[in-house]
Amino acid sequence: MKALYYSPFHHPFVCWVSCVLFIAALLVTRRDSRFLASRFFATFFWVFTLEIAADALITGGWSPVPGSSRVGTALSIAFVVLGDFRYFLLVEYVLAKRLTLGVALRAVAFSLLIPLATAPISSVDSRVLYLLYEASFACVALLMRFFVIPMRGRALEPDARAYLYLLTGFEMVQYVAWAIADIRIIRGHELGWLLRIVPDALYYAVFLAFAWFGLPKSLRRGELAS
After folding, report:
1. Which end of the chain is more exposed for a tag (fewer CB within 10 A), N or C?
2. For the chain, how far is it from start to end, CA to CA, in angstroms?
3. Whole-prediction pTM
4. Per-residue confidence at 226, pLDDT binned at 50, 70, 90?
């Protein structure tokens, strides 16, 4: 199971196939009159499709950078932060109804919260560190779902607020699935590696498509400022 998990046909191949399919969907949608009026969303999905493809290359089985090297470790951490940043940036943009420096800085701050909090315990076993990160993010997602979004999203259109709830629920499922898989791995169960492929697919192959096709009408019409 572990060999399958680290196989390049799982990572980056699956991610790259999903990126190609998603880019095709973006190109087809662009010909549609309902294509996003907001430059933010159009730019967001293009940039993060390229980012996740680069992530898969650097952290996958065909990486030109050794994962055990300092450069490889630094890049892996950077991609983890970017992966969380895409969620927080979407949330902050929709809540603020426009893109500002403050929106970007809040998204960065949320993305760095858990990496900075877990940095002092980075000497523990890597799998335990992953589990702590995953559990911490699940807790942050719960706070976002039941406190941050309800309080700050009162003025949003109902469908925009529901969209943020869906994104947050997606993140919670993804991180809880990772945590369950890692608990199995730590306990010595090979099945954990197979289970881990599911949240990996959500992270690399599904999130952007989920966020794109789930955009409600109020956001597709470009009612937010670009």
Report:
1. C
2. 46
3. 0.93
4. very low
Domain residue ranges of the chain, discontinuous segments joined by +: 2-220
- Which range (52-66, 81-95, 140-154, 161-175) has the least confidence? 52-66
Q: Sign of the CA dihedral 76, 77, 83, 85?
A: negative
Burial 125-149 (b: 16+ CB within 10 A, else e): eeeebbbbbbbbbbebbeebbeebb
Angle (CA) 141 144 147, round 5° = 135
- What are 102's two structure tokens? 């403050």
Spatial separation of the C-alpha atoms in residues 211 and 164, rounded to whole Å: 9
Class of the CATH domain delimited by 2-220: mainly alpha
Q: Which position has the token pair 């529901």? A: 162
Count CB neighbours of 197 within 10 A. 17
